Amino acid sequence: MVKNINKVKEIDMATVAGNTTLAASVDRRSVERCKEAIEKLGVVHTPVIGTSKSGKRMLLSGQCELTALRELGVKKMDAIEVDVTCGDGADAKISLLLISLQGSPGALCEGLLLQEAVSAGVPRIEIQAMLGKSASWVSNRLSLVTRLDRNVYEMVKSGVLEPRSAQDVARLPTGEQFAFAEIAVKEGLPKSAIELLVAGYNDESCPDAVKAQILSDPRAALVRMSDKRRAVTTGLPGLRKADVPPDAINEAIKSARMKMAALHRALCNAPPQEAVGYANALKELELSMLAMIAIIRGIFSPGKTEVERSGG
């Protein structure tokens, strides 16, 4: 696949085309951190450039470094140049190999790189072996790309929307994603808020009126959802019975326990290297669980129950 790997050489940055797929893993904070590191230490991770038969240079690894160097006004950079003239998806295979060595660039970027490899004719079984991933992992990443609205992806490429926020947006119906993403960016909503809103929209018990507000006025919907959660957890006098169906909490508890049991089985049966790929998602789940534990303990703490508040 690779005919020759030259020593690190100095390359004119103007001759290197950026990689729009890799750009899906780069956010503004990463670029700023990279610029700071370059100014103090130089380029720590050497970019890898693929050179085609026509002499065109394509970035295969190091989009963050390339962006940072250009913003710093650097005209030339050291890079590893790789010959990708042999075809058969050589550049796609090298890109996949590089992300497997350097760690996860994010689910969206992984899915886009996988899609490029599949489109180039690389068999899925070869991709699985190359990355050490299961068939379900590959399918899930490709499914994410399929679900994501193209206009939302363009927002990621242009740096308007962070890649990890786009992953949450992809869980909305395709026809609603772009309008929601535009409003979320305009309102400056963080990833945590976007994740909460998308989860609320996909909740089967969420009323249609709230779903419509999530799409049209997400910040107001956040306040509404927050107020309702406080009312449920603290038993505020202003809470109407109609706001919470009698069996809603009981059903939610049953559903949560079933999903946690399924997650427990999946994590126990998953190869260690695959479980590591979900580190960020698992950390966010841990925070959500800690918040829920605090709420549960608060309900049963002295002075917190409705009986104790009423003096019964």
CATH architecture of one domain: Alpha-Beta Complex
Q: Averaging pLDDT over every residue, what do you get?
A: 77
Q: How many distinct beta strands?
A: 5
The CATH C-level name of one domain is: Alpha Beta
Structural class: alpha/beta
Helix proportion of residues, in percent? Answer: 55-70%
Summary, kept brief:
61% of the residues lie in helices and 7% in strands. By secondary structure, it is an alpha/beta fold. It has a 5-stranded mixed beta sheet.
Characteristics of this structure?
312 residues, alpha/beta, Conserved hypothetical protein from pyrococcus furiosus pfu- 392566-001, ParB domain, 7% strand
Structure description:
- With 312 residues, this protein is of the alpha/beta class.
- It has 16 helices and 5 strands.
- Among the domains are: 9-147, Conserved hypothetical protein from pyrococcus furiosus pfu- 392566-001, ParB domain (Alpha-Beta Complex); 165-236, no CATH class.
- It is 61% helix and 7% strand.
- The protein is globular.
- The model is unreliable at 230-242 and 302-312 (pLDDT under 50).
